[in-house]
Amino acid sequence: MGQSTSRRRDDHPQIRPSPQPHPLSSSSSYPLPPPSPPPPPPPPPNYIYPPYPPPCYPTRPSHPIPSPPQQFYTTGSYRYFARPTYPYPPIPPPSNGRWVPPSGSSSSYLPPPLPPPPLPHVEHEKAKTIKNYVNVHKDTIRLEEDESGKDRHLVSFTFDALVDGSMTIHYFAKEEADCNFSGEYPDIMPVRVSFQKGVAQKFRQPSGTGIDLGFFPIDDLSKPSDGYAFPLVISAQASSQSLSVDEPQSQPDSAVRVQITLAVIEKKNDEPYRVKVIKQILWVEGERYELQELFGRSESEPEDDNPGQECVICMGEPRNTAVLPCRHVCMCSECAKALVAQSNKCPICRQPVEKLMEIKDKSGSL
């Protein structure tokens, strides 16, 4: 029975699983090799695109670069330059009259302005009193028709004379040295007429001694010639004998006193001839003085009867100082000195003051 059983077992062999080796079961076992790395990824596909033309944009007209702004502009014959604008600095804190930059922000403040330039020096002189013995009132000079001839004219005017003397009428004459005159036309002789002393006398050139003004062009009559020859010259001379009685200490040569009036003759359309005085000159003891009017003082009325002649600054003292070159008599001497120390402008016309002339007579007033 036993054999049959073993045979039956051989006839049907059983398949047994092979034992799995254990890496740590015995020393005769070998380790497994490490796994191989994964293959590299395939390269990215290379895509080829056809080229496209660049985009087209609408073209714009090109303009030149603008020039910098003009720094000046011209109006007529004057050129004005632009002034750069600067920001106004903040007001600095008070410092008792001294400029102190603020702490921490000194760069935002400008330095103190420069002081104004000093005022120019103004001379203060006292006028020298000169006695004029003969005075021609220049605003009364007229041209009158001569009864003896057509188109001939005579000279007439009003004058004052403290002594005897003579009047000499020159036409187209030029002033020379030592109070002499030379005429441009030898055929035209000067006319001399004597007079006696007196106030507000009327002078009229003798009839028959007039001049034919129609012979000369109007342009030659209305202005001096290139040689400074004036169309009309009136010379009023005091007599030397009368001066020797009035001034015994004067020398005969130095006692000559002459007032010269230089004038031109104007005419407009059918209007009569008119005399325009250019200047008046006074020769005294060999010295030549040019007479000029003073504005702001009336000599025809006394000071008590002519109010409003006080100094325009203090309103108390009389006016006795003339401002040159504008010739305004408007201040007393003390106010004039104080004025030029602060300003060099005339208080009447605001013109620059170049000189002060203090004018006083024997009584101490103008």
UniProtKB/TrEMBL annotation:
<feature type="compositionally biased region" description="Pro residues">
    <location>
        <begin position="31"/>
        <end position="53"/>
    </location>
</feature>
<keyword id="KW-0862">Zinc</keyword>
<feature type="region of interest" description="Disordered">
    <location>
        <begin position="1"/>
        <end position="53"/>
    </location>
</feature>
<keyword id="KW-0479">Metal-binding</keyword>
<dbReference type="GO" id="GO:0008270">
    <property type="term" value="F:zinc ion binding"/>
</dbReference>
<dbReference type="InterPro" id="IPR045194">
    <property type="entry name" value="MGRN1/RNF157-like"/>
</dbReference>
<comment type="pathway">
    <text>Protein modification; protein ubiquitination.</text>
</comment>
<dbReference type="Pfam" id="PF13920">
    <property type="entry name" value="zf-C3HC4_3"/>
</dbReference>
<dbReference type="GO" id="GO:0016567">
    <property type="term" value="P:protein ubiquitination"/>
</dbReference>
<protein>
    <recommendedName>
        <fullName>RING-type E3 ubiquitin transferase</fullName>
        <ecNumber>2.3.2.27</ecNumber>
    </recommendedName>
</protein>
<dbReference type="InterPro" id="IPR013083">
    <property type="entry name" value="Znf_RING/FYVE/PHD"/>
</dbReference>
<keyword id="KW-0833">Ubl conjugation pathway</keyword>
<dbReference type="InterPro" id="IPR045195">
    <property type="entry name" value="LOG2-like_mRING_C3HC5"/>
</dbReference>
<keyword id="KW-0519">Myristate</keyword>
<keyword id="KW-0863">Zinc-finger</keyword>
<keyword id="KW-0808">Transferase</keyword>
<dbReference type="Pfam" id="PF26192">
    <property type="entry name" value="RNF157-like_N"/>
</dbReference>
<feature type="domain" description="RING-type">
    <location>
        <begin position="311"/>
        <end position="350"/>
    </location>
</feature>
<keyword id="KW-0449">Lipoprotein</keyword>
<dbReference type="GO" id="GO:0061630">
    <property type="term" value="F:ubiquitin protein ligase activity"/>
</dbReference>
<comment type="similarity">
    <text>Belongs to the RING-type zinc finger family. LOG2 subfamily.</text>
</comment>
<dbReference type="InterPro" id="IPR058981">
    <property type="entry name" value="MGRN1/RNF157-like_N"/>
</dbReference>
<dbReference type="InterPro" id="IPR001841">
    <property type="entry name" value="Znf_RING"/>
</dbReference>
